Amino acid sequence: MSDLVARTGRHQQRYQDGFRLIAGCIPFKYRDWDDGTDDEPKKIVEVLMINSQSGPGLLFPKGGWENDETVQQAAVREAIEEAGVRGDLMKFLGDYCFKSRSHQDEFSPEGWCKAAMYALLVKEELCSWPEQSTRERQWITIPEALEQCRHKWMEDSLKAFSKWHANKVFGVEEDDDPISVASSTR
Protein backbone atom coordinates (compact mmCIF):
# COMPACT_ATOMS: atom_id res chain seq x y z
CA MET A 1 0.00 0.00 0.00
CA SER A 2 1.19 3.49 -0.80
CA ASP A 3 2.21 5.90 1.93
CA LEU A 4 0.84 8.68 -0.28
CA VAL A 5 -2.59 9.93 0.74
CA ALA A 6 -5.09 11.84 -1.38
CA ARG A 7 -6.20 15.20 -0.05
CA THR A 8 -9.89 15.44 0.72
CA GLY A 9 -12.28 18.19 1.74
CA ARG A 10 -12.70 21.76 0.61
CA HIS A 11 -11.37 23.80 3.52
CA GLN A 12 -8.32 25.00 1.53
CA GLN A 13 -9.98 25.20 -1.89
CA ARG A 14 -9.25 28.28 -4.02
CA TYR A 15 -12.02 30.31 -5.65
CA GLN A 16 -11.92 33.35 -7.90
CA ASP A 17 -14.84 35.38 -9.28
CA GLY A 18 -17.33 32.57 -8.60
CA PHE A 19 -15.13 29.86 -10.12
CA ARG A 20 -13.62 26.92 -8.23
CA LEU A 21 -9.99 26.82 -9.35
CA ILE A 22 -8.80 23.47 -10.68
CA ALA A 23 -5.34 22.24 -11.71
CA GLY A 24 -4.73 19.31 -14.00
CA CYS A 25 -2.48 17.82 -16.60
CA ILE A 26 -2.26 15.70 -19.69
CA PRO A 27 0.35 13.06 -18.81
CA PHE A 28 2.27 11.86 -21.86
CA LYS A 29 5.13 9.57 -22.84
CA TYR A 30 6.77 8.22 -25.97
CA ARG A 31 6.54 4.65 -27.19
CA ASP A 32 8.62 3.02 -29.91
CA TRP A 33 6.58 2.03 -32.93
CA ASP A 34 7.89 0.05 -35.86
CA ASP A 35 5.94 0.82 -39.01
CA GLY A 36 8.05 -1.61 -41.06
CA THR A 37 9.34 1.07 -43.46
CA ASP A 38 12.91 1.43 -42.19
CA ASP A 39 15.41 0.11 -39.68
CA GLU A 40 14.67 2.51 -36.86
CA PRO A 41 11.44 2.44 -34.86
CA LYS A 42 9.53 5.70 -34.72
CA LYS A 43 8.35 7.34 -31.52
CA ILE A 44 4.66 7.90 -31.02
CA VAL A 45 3.14 9.95 -28.22
CA GLU A 46 0.62 8.41 -25.86
CA VAL A 47 -1.44 10.23 -23.24
CA LEU A 48 -2.65 8.82 -19.96
CA MET A 49 -6.34 8.95 -19.15
CA ILE A 50 -8.21 7.66 -16.13
CA ASN A 51 -11.74 6.39 -15.65
CA SER A 52 -14.40 8.65 -14.22
CA GLN A 53 -15.94 7.72 -10.90
CA SER A 54 -19.29 9.16 -11.98
CA GLY A 55 -20.00 7.72 -15.40
CA PRO A 56 -18.66 6.62 -18.78
CA GLY A 57 -15.75 8.18 -20.60
CA LEU A 58 -12.20 8.98 -19.65
CA LEU A 59 -10.62 11.98 -17.93
CA PHE A 60 -7.27 13.61 -17.42
CA PRO A 61 -6.10 13.92 -13.80
CA LYS A 62 -7.35 17.14 -12.26
CA GLY A 63 -8.65 18.49 -9.00
CA GLY A 64 -8.91 21.43 -6.67
CA TRP A 65 -6.05 23.92 -6.39
CA GLU A 66 -5.54 24.58 -2.70
CA ASN A 67 -4.34 27.65 -0.77
CA ASP A 68 -1.06 26.09 0.41
CA GLU A 69 0.28 25.22 -3.06
CA THR A 70 1.05 26.74 -6.44
CA VAL A 71 -1.09 25.78 -9.42
CA GLN A 72 1.85 23.73 -10.74
CA GLN A 73 2.17 21.85 -7.44
CA ALA A 74 -1.57 21.13 -7.54
CA ALA A 75 -1.33 19.74 -11.10
CA VAL A 76 1.58 17.47 -10.12
CA ARG A 77 -0.23 16.35 -6.94
CA GLU A 78 -3.36 15.44 -8.89
CA ALA A 79 -1.30 13.37 -11.36
CA ILE A 80 0.15 11.40 -8.46
CA GLU A 81 -3.13 11.02 -6.54
CA GLU A 82 -5.44 10.12 -9.43
CA ALA A 83 -3.17 8.52 -12.03
CA GLY A 84 -0.11 7.37 -10.10
CA VAL A 85 2.44 9.14 -12.30
CA ARG A 86 5.28 11.58 -11.69
CA GLY A 87 7.07 13.71 -14.23
CA ASP A 88 7.96 17.17 -15.47
CA LEU A 89 5.45 19.87 -16.33
CA MET A 90 6.48 20.95 -19.82
CA LYS A 91 3.87 23.44 -21.03
CA PHE A 92 0.91 25.45 -19.74
CA LEU A 93 -1.93 24.55 -22.12
CA GLY A 94 -4.48 27.13 -21.01
CA ASP A 95 -7.40 27.77 -18.69
CA TYR A 96 -10.63 25.91 -19.42
CA CYS A 97 -13.99 26.87 -17.91
CA PHE A 98 -16.73 24.33 -17.32
CA LYS A 99 -19.74 23.69 -15.14
CA SER A 100 -19.62 20.84 -12.64
CA ARG A 101 -22.83 19.24 -11.43
CA SER A 102 -21.04 17.47 -8.57
CA HIS A 103 -19.05 20.42 -7.18
CA GLN A 104 -21.60 23.08 -6.36
CA ASP A 105 -21.08 24.90 -3.06
CA GLU A 106 -21.62 28.26 -1.36
CA PHE A 107 -18.68 29.86 -3.22
CA SER A 108 -19.70 28.49 -6.62
CA PRO A 109 -23.42 27.70 -6.36
CA GLU A 110 -23.76 26.96 -10.06
CA GLY A 111 -20.67 24.73 -10.07
CA TRP A 112 -18.47 26.88 -12.32
CA CYS A 113 -14.84 25.76 -12.45
CA LYS A 114 -11.72 27.06 -14.17
CA ALA A 115 -9.05 24.44 -14.88
CA ALA A 116 -5.39 25.33 -15.50
CA MET A 117 -4.07 22.46 -17.64
CA TYR A 118 -0.45 21.43 -18.25
CA ALA A 119 1.44 18.91 -20.35
CA LEU A 120 3.27 16.48 -18.01
CA LEU A 121 6.10 14.36 -19.41
CA VAL A 122 5.86 11.16 -17.37
CA LYS A 123 9.13 9.95 -15.85
CA GLU A 124 7.74 7.38 -13.39
CA GLU A 125 4.64 5.18 -13.13
CA LEU A 126 3.92 4.27 -9.53
CA CYS A 127 2.89 0.73 -8.63
CA SER A 128 0.79 2.10 -5.79
CA TRP A 129 -0.99 5.46 -5.59
CA PRO A 130 -3.73 7.03 -3.44
CA GLU A 131 -6.72 6.47 -5.76
CA GLN A 132 -5.66 3.17 -7.33
CA SER A 133 -8.67 1.34 -5.84
CA THR A 134 -11.10 3.64 -7.71
CA ARG A 135 -9.09 4.66 -10.79
CA GLU A 136 -7.91 2.70 -13.78
CA ARG A 137 -5.33 4.26 -16.07
CA GLN A 138 -5.05 3.79 -19.82
CA TRP A 139 -2.25 4.85 -22.18
CA ILE A 140 -3.76 5.73 -25.54
CA THR A 141 -2.87 7.68 -28.67
CA ILE A 142 -4.11 11.24 -29.17
CA PRO A 143 -6.77 10.23 -31.75
CA GLU A 144 -8.05 7.53 -29.35
CA ALA A 145 -8.05 10.06 -26.50
CA LEU A 146 -10.08 12.55 -28.57
CA GLU A 147 -12.73 9.85 -29.00
CA GLN A 148 -12.69 8.96 -25.29
CA CYS A 149 -12.79 12.45 -23.72
CA ARG A 150 -15.76 12.67 -21.42
CA HIS A 151 -15.98 16.47 -21.54
CA LYS A 152 -15.67 19.04 -24.35
CA TRP A 153 -13.25 21.19 -22.31
CA MET A 154 -10.89 18.21 -21.94
CA GLU A 155 -11.09 17.64 -25.68
CA ASP A 156 -10.16 21.30 -26.18
CA SER A 157 -7.17 20.98 -23.82
CA LEU A 158 -6.08 17.83 -25.67
CA LYS A 159 -6.23 19.74 -28.97
CA ALA A 160 -4.01 22.45 -27.41
CA PHE A 161 -1.63 19.71 -26.25
CA SER A 162 -1.59 18.14 -29.71
CA LYS A 163 -0.83 21.50 -31.36
CA TRP A 164 1.97 22.23 -28.86
CA HIS A 165 3.42 18.75 -29.29
CA ALA A 166 3.33 18.95 -33.09
CA ASN A 167 5.15 22.30 -32.95
CA LYS A 168 7.68 20.83 -30.50
CA VAL A 169 8.36 17.84 -32.77
CA PHE A 170 8.82 20.05 -35.82
CA GLY A 171 11.11 22.48 -33.99
CA VAL A 172 8.72 25.42 -33.75
CA GLU A 173 8.64 25.40 -29.93
CA GLU A 174 11.75 27.14 -28.57
CA ASP A 175 11.44 26.66 -24.81
CA ASP A 176 11.58 22.96 -23.90
CA ASP A 177 12.65 23.29 -20.28
CA PRO A 178 10.37 21.86 -17.60
CA ILE A 179 8.24 24.32 -15.66
CA SER A 180 9.41 24.84 -12.11
CA VAL A 181 6.83 23.33 -9.78
CA ALA A 182 7.87 25.76 -7.06
CA SER A 183 7.07 28.85 -9.15
CA SER A 184 3.90 30.78 -8.42
CA THR A 185 3.23 32.02 -11.95
CA ARG A 186 2.27 30.14 -15.07
UniProtKB/TrEMBL annotation:
Keywords: Hydrolase, Magnesium, Metal-binding. Residues 18-162 form the Nudix hydrolase domain. This is Nudix hydrolase 16, mitochondrial. Its cofactor is Mg(2+). PROSITE patterns: NUDIX, NUDIX_BOX. GO terms for molecular function: metal ion binding; pyrophosphatase activity. It comes from Dioscorea cayennensis subsp. rotundata (White Guinea yam). The keyword Metal-binding applies. GO terms for cellular component: cytoplasm; nucleus. Belongs to the Nudix hydrolase family.
